[in-house]
Each structure stands twice: as structure tokens, then as C-alpha cells.
């Protein structure tokens, strides 16, 4: 397990997770900012997040697996697809990447546009329990899509895993 820490491939994979998460958060949150000429819509935000994740899965999937989300990393750990050590480093890199991406967006966005920086809110009298349950179902469908589209045991032509994962993320944003 410790040999993994010393490998260049491990370092590249952890950095890929950091960078991909940074880019994902920067563009995803950026799409939800309230620009006067282009206010955010649910469709715009869903497409931005979906296209961003599809692009990033295609770009860094061969380096790190392109988890870009601690929930995905945890699912891969439970599914014995990554080691415990790699999962810990990935989650730390993802958190640091997300914070860095949000901080960069915060600094590059004019104050009057920035607002709450696209912070999510629960609407329509939805309770916290209902929101958490919905998030669990949406995360489950994302994990199911990832596992199904990247399964090496499949012999059928499954198309583009990056595209199907991107569509899954867009679906989650449209529904959630």
C-alpha cells in the first residue's frame, strides 16, 4: 500500500482529481451566477454541469478514473475499485479542488454578480429530510450509471461512458 504513495502515477491521479474538481466547480457554479444579460435557468445550469463532467471524464478518466466527487470515490471504495489510501487522497484532493475552484470564481467575479456564489437552497416547502432523500436517489442513479458504463465485463457496445455520465449529472440537476 505504501508503495502506491511513491509512484508517479499515484501523484498524477491525485493531481488530476484536484484539477478536474476545480474546473468542474468553477464552470458549474459559474453557470449559476446571475449575470444581467444571461440569468441562470435550470436547463442552463444542468447542461453546464453535465457537459463539464462529460468533458472532464473524457479528459482525465484514463489518469484517475475521474471520480470528481467524494460520493463517487466512496462508492468505488465500497465496490473495491480503489484502495483505501487512494480514496483518502482523492477525497482530500477533491475537497481542496472544490474550495480552490469556488475561491477562484469568487475572486474573478464582480461583487455585484457574485451574490451568494450560487449556493443551493431548498425550495417549495421541501423539508430537509425530503431534500436529503432526493439527493440520495440522485447520487444512486449517478453511481449506477458510472458503474454500468465503465464495467470492463460488458461486451456490448455501450457508447461513450463520458457522455452517459454527463447526461446522468444533467438529469440529476434537472430533477433535483
Automatic annotation (TrEMBL):
It is a multi-pass membrane protein. It is found in: Apical cell membrane; Basolateral cell membrane; Cytoplasmic vesicle membrane; Golgi apparatus, trans-Golgi network membrane. SUPFAM superfamilies: Aquaporin-like (SSF81338). The keyword Transmembrane helix applies. One of its GO terms (cellular component) is basolateral plasma membrane. The chain crosses the membrane at residues 12-33, 45-64, 84-105. It comes from Phrynocephalus forsythii. PROSITE patterns: MIP (PS00221). Belongs to the MIP/aquaporin (TC 1.A.8) family. GO terms for molecular function: water channel activity. It catalyses: glycerol(in) = glycerol(out). This is Aquaporin-2. InterPro entries: Aquaporin-like, Aquaporin_transptr, MIP, MIP_CS. Keywords: Cell membrane, Cytoplasmic vesicle, Glycoprotein, Golgi apparatus, Membrane, Phosphoprotein, Transmembrane, Transmembrane helix, Transport.
Amino acid at each position: 500500500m505504501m508503495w502506491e504513495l511513491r509512484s508517479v502515477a499515484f501523484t498524477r491521479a491525485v493531481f488530476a482529481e484536484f484539477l478536474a474538481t476545480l474546473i468542474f466547480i468553477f464552470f458549474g457554479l459559474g453557470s449559476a451566477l446571475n449575470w444581467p444579460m444571461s440569468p441562470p435557468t435550470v436547463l442552463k445550469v444542468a447542461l453546464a454541469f453535465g457537459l463539464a463532467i462529460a468533458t472532464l471524464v473524457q479528459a482525465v478518466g484514463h489518469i484517475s478514473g475521474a471520480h470528481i466527487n467524494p460520493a463517487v470515490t466512496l462508492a468505488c471504495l465500497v465496490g473495491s475499485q480503489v484502495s483505501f489510501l487512494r480514496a483518502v487522497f482523492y477525497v482530500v484532493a477533491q475537497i481542496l479542488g472544490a474550495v480552490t475552484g469556488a475561491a477562484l470564481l469568487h475572486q474573478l467575479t464582480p461583487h455585484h454578480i457574485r451574490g451568494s456564489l450560487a449556493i443551493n437552497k431548498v425550495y417549495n416547502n421541501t423539508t430537509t429530510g425530503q431534500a436529503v432523500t432526493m439527493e440520495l436517489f440522485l447520487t444512486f442513479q449517478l453511481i449506477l450509471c458510472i458503474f454500468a458504463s465503465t464495467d470492463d465485463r460488458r461486451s456490448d457496445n455501450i457508447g461513450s461512458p463520458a457522455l452517459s455520465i454527463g447526461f446522468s449529472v444533467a438529469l440529476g440537476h434537472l430533477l433535483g
